[in-house]
């Protein structure tokens, strides 16, 4: 290849005077043409692995401050990318959360010959799992031999490297934009537990969940958000690094979720200001602000004001490195923490236990499975073993949980609120959503409508309608 380019350059230098142009100009134009041709080839190669995502579901509507949030039917658009030939896709959690129906459109003309789909054919996707903390989700579509993109090693990315954002900005499917990596590890705040790839490749609404691609055709990261004052791209785009994406994808595919370990500490990065104010022995590391009683760290003997400097021999300079070490460690594994305590070095062995703080994820999962009950103006889900943890000591083992209020023209004398558990309608037990819906459907106009609910642990009757 190199010899071919040398020969081309010599040939151009020899013939350029015949056309009245300096050799340097001809060579530069040839190089530019070759670069353009290479970019076209790369985009053509990676585009079939990128899909447009259309999500139908319920989302929160804007309202006056202080009012209870309303939920209405919405559609959202985003992007996803195949990461395996058997139909697994990566996208952002914020693209698909609360989605009741998720479809993807694949721009892969060769797929028709394989019998999976034709160009732009919509496919229904199943949600394998969603992780709100990393803002990642894994989807699955039927079929085999899908075109997919491999993961790059994001630890080897460098500032100035050329990258491409592929996606569906504002619904314009399979668009491509080019830029460079502005920062390979941009940490948004000293105590941020996650770093991002910063790029000036134009990213707009609809690009979310799409790949940031290297010149090798590999996934450098998943585009997730922009910083903007105008609402459009201003050269400040951010992508989740492929190393984190790869780890989260493997866990979601295996467990249906990301399992996180916790030590039972409240920590923050040590900074020069903090070190000076508190007379700390160093200006980096992670300061333990509190140790939660009954958790693993307390049992292991960790103390307030300990400074963690290493985890299993790996240096820790800030919260991001500390959180990364915990994320990549196995649940149940004993970690050796090198700690500075009162200016002395101490080793502490702490067992990593699975975090049980999943209230937000449980609520989002409930919204995704919730059913609209228009007569009551709510989205609701059945009270059962999987949803009972949302409620503090439910009074019965049956009922219907209000997940959100719907946008509705109906006026109620008293209002149901998210978190209410409906146990009865006009004195009849509402053991599930079907029965609840049937009860309210059978009511004639003007009939009284009184529901018994549990709200904040207290039973009460709400008069929703009637004379």
In short:
The chain has 467 residues and is an alpha+beta fold. 22% of the residues lie in helices and 36% in strands.
Explain what you see:
It is a single chain. Strand 17 (307-311) and strand 18 form a beta hairpin. The chain has four domains: 2-46; 47-259, Thrombin, subunit H (Beta Barrel), CATH 2.40.10; 261-354, Pdz3 Domain, CATH 2.30.42.10; 370-465, PDZ domain (Pdz3 Domain), CATH 2.30.42.10. The strands form four sheets. Strands 1, 2, 3, 4, 5, 6, 7, 22, 23, 24, 25, 26, 27 and 28 form a 14-stranded mixed sheet that branches. The protein has 467 residues and is α+β, with helices and mostly antiparallel strands. The protein contains ten helices and 28 strands. The protein is flat and about 90 Å long.
Tell me the CATH topology of the largest domain: Thrombin, subunit H
Could you tell me the radius of gyration in angstroms? Answer: 28 Å
Number of helices: 10
Work out the number of β strands: 28
Give the CATH architecture of the largest domain.
Beta Barrel
Mean pLDDT: 81
Globular, elongated, flat, extended or rod-shaped: what is the shape? Answer: flat
- Derived structural class: alpha+beta
**Number of domains as seen in the coordinates:** 4
Residue share in β-strands: 35-45%
Helix proportion range: 10-25%
Biggest sheet, in brief?
14 strands, mixed
- Ranges with pLDDT <50 over ≥5 residues? 112-119
Ends: how far apart? 87 Å
Q: Please give the CATH class of the largest domain.
A: Mainly Beta
């Amino acid at each position: 290849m190199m010899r071919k380019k040398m020969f081309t350059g010599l040939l151009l230098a020899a013939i350029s005077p015949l056309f009245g142009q300096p050799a340097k100009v001809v060579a530069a134009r040839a190089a530019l043409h070759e670069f353009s041709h290479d970019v076209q080839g790369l985009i053509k190669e990676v585009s079939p692995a990128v899909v447009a995502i259309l999500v139908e579901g319920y989302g929160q509507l804007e309202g006056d401050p202080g009012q209870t949030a309303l939920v209405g039917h919405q559609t959202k658009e985003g992007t996803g990318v195949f990461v395996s030939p058997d139909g697994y896709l990566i996208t952002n959690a914020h693209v698909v959360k609360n989605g009741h129906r998720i479809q993807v459109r694949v721009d892969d003309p060769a797929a028709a010959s394989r019998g999976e789909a034709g160009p732009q054919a919509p496919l229904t996707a199943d949600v394998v799992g969603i992780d709100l903390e990393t803002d990642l989700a894994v989807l699955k579509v039927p079929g085999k031999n899908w075109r997919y993109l491999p993961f790059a090693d994001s630890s080897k990315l460098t500032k100035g490297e050329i990258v491409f954002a592929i996606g569906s900005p504002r619904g314009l499917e399979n668009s491509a934009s080019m830029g460079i990596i502005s920062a390979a590890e941009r940490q948004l705040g000293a105590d941020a537990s996650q770093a991002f790839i910063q790029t000036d490749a134009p990213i707009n609404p609809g690009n979310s969940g799409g790949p940031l691609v290297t010149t090798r055709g590999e996934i450098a990261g998943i585009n997730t958000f922009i910083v903007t004052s105008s609402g459009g791209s201003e050269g400040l785009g951010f992508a989740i690094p492929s190393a984190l994406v790869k780890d989260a994808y493997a866990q979601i595919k295996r467990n249906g979720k990301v399992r996180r370990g916790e030590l039972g500490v409240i920590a923050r990065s040590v900074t020069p200001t903090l070190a000076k104010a508190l007379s700390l022995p160093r200006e980096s590391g992670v300061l333990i602000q509190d140790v939660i009683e009954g958790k693993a760290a307390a049992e292991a003997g960790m103390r307030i004001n300990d400074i963690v400097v290493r985890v299993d021999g790996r240096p820790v300079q800030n919260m991001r490195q500390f959180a990364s070490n915990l994320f990549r460690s196995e649940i149940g594994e004993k970690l050796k923490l090198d700690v500075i305590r009162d200016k002395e070095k101490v080793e502490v062995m702490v067992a990593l236990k699975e975090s049980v703080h999943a209230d937000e994820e449980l609520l989002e999962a409930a919204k995704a499975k919730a059913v609209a009950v228009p007569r009551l103006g709510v989205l609701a889900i059945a009270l059962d073993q999987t949803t009972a943890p949302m409620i503090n000591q439910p009074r019965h083992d049956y009922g219907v949980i209000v997940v959100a209020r719907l946008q509705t023209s109906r006026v109620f004398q008293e209002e149901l609120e998210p978190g209410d558990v409906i146990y009865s309608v006009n004195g009849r037990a509402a053991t599930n959503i079907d029965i609840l819906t049937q009860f309210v459907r059978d009511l004639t106009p003007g009939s009284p409508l009184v529901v018994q609910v549990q709200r904040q642990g207290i039973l009460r009757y709400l008069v929703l309608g009637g004379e």
